[in-house]
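thoughts on both lines:
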Amino acid sequence: NLAYVIYTSGSTGQPKGVMLEHRGLCNLAAFQASAFQTRPGDHVLQFANQGFDASVWECFMALAAGATLCLCDTASLRAGQLHNILKERRISIVTLPPSVLAATPHDDLAALRTVVAAGEACPPQVVARWGAERRFFNAYGPTESTVCASMAPCDPADEEAPSIGRPIENTELYILDRYANPVPVGVPGELHIGGRCLARGYQGRPDLTAEKFIPHAFSAEPGARLYKTGDLVRYRADGNIEFLGRIDHQLKIRGFRVEPGEVEACLRQHPLLQEAVVVAHVPLPGDVRLVAYIVAREGAAPSFGELRRFMRERLPDYMVPSTYIALDKLPLNASGKVDRRALPAPDGQRVQRDVAHVKPREGLESTIAGIWEDVLQVKKVGAQDNFFDLGGHSLLLLKVKQRLEAALGQEISVITLFRHPTVQQLAQHLEDSTRTDALQSGRSRAEKQMMAQRQRQPPRRKP
C-alpha cells in the first residue's frame, strides 16, 4: 500500500510527487535500527523539515525503535544553535548534511554516539573531526529509493574521501554504461537501484515514471524495475562505490568531459580546506571555465597559487579551476545542502589573486592588460598578473595572439606568450625584441650600403 507522497525537485528543478510504499518504509526503519543499534533511551534529532524525505529517515527510525524523537524550532537551527541543541537535548543519533557538520563544533557532546552524513559528498576532513570519538556513517539515496540505498561506515584516519558503501538490505545497486551494460571496476557509470525500496513512480506523471523506472534486465522477477538515478559513480577496488557527481552536471571543457564532483573531491584533499564546491562559469559563448568556491579551516587559508599548484599536481590542466573564490561559509538551502544558485558570481572583482595589484604602465603594458581583460572577461588586470592564473588557457592564448598582432602590427609567436605569462614580462620581451630587430635592421642596411659602395669602386690592379 501507498505510505506517503513527497515532492522533490531533484536536480532538474521540476517538482514531482514520489509515491512510496509501506514495504520500503518498513525495510528502511528495520535496517536503521540494526545499523545504528537504536534502542529505547536514545534521543534522535529531527533536523530535516517534513517537506524533505530525510525527515522520514529520522522519524520512523526513532519511533519504531522506541527512541525519543527530538523536535526543534527551525529558526533555532538556522541561527547557529545546533551545537547547543545537540548538547542540551542529549542527542545520541543525528543525521546531517556534510556542509552543516563542517560548520558545527564537534566537541563536548558526550551523549552523541552515532553521526550520519547524507545529502552531499562528504569530505574526509568532516569524518576526521566527527568520527574520532563516535561511529560515523556516510549514507546515500534518492527519494525514489525510500531515502537510503547504500551506506558506509567511515574510518576517521582514512585520508581518502569516504565512499557511499554498499547497498542496504533488500536493495540492489548496478553501475551501467549508456547501453545499460555493467561497467568494470574503476570505470564511471550511472547508478541504478532495484529492490524493495523502490517507489511506485511519480504521481500523475506516467511518462516520467516510464523514463526513470526501467525494466530490470538482471532480474527473473516479473515486473521488476530499476531506477535510473542520474548519479555518476564507480566501483573501487574493495567493492565499495564512489560517488562522482550528477550526470547532468557533467561539463565539456575544450573537448574534454569533466565531472565537477571529481574536482571537488580533489580540492577537499587539501589539508587547509574545510569545504569546496566547483561550478561552471561561461563568461562568453563556448568558453566554459571551472570556478572553485572554497572555505578554509580556521586560521589556515592557503594561497590561491598554492591551490593551483596542488591541483595541477593531481589533475590534468583542463580539470584545474581557473578561478578560486574564498567564502566564510557556503550558502545552504532549507534542507541544509549547498545552494549552488546562491553562490556569488565570479564578476572579476571578487576573484582574489596572489599578487598585489600593480597598475600597468602607459603604452605597451596598458595595451596588453586591456586585451587580457577583454579576452579573459576579468577586471583590473595588473602588470604582475599571470595570464594562466587569471583563467587563461591555450585557446584563449590564440585570441590574445591575434589581438596583439593586430594592435602592434607585428607577428608574435605562441611560444613567446607561453614563456612570458605576465603583462610586465611580455611587454619587456616585446620591447627588447623591437630594439634588437631595429639594431639588426640598422646593421643590415649598413652592410648593404657597404656592399653597394664596393661594387661601384673600380677593381684594383695588381702591381
Remarks:
- Residues 17 and 203 are 5 Å apart (CA to CA).
- DSSP finds 13 helices and 20 strands in the chain.
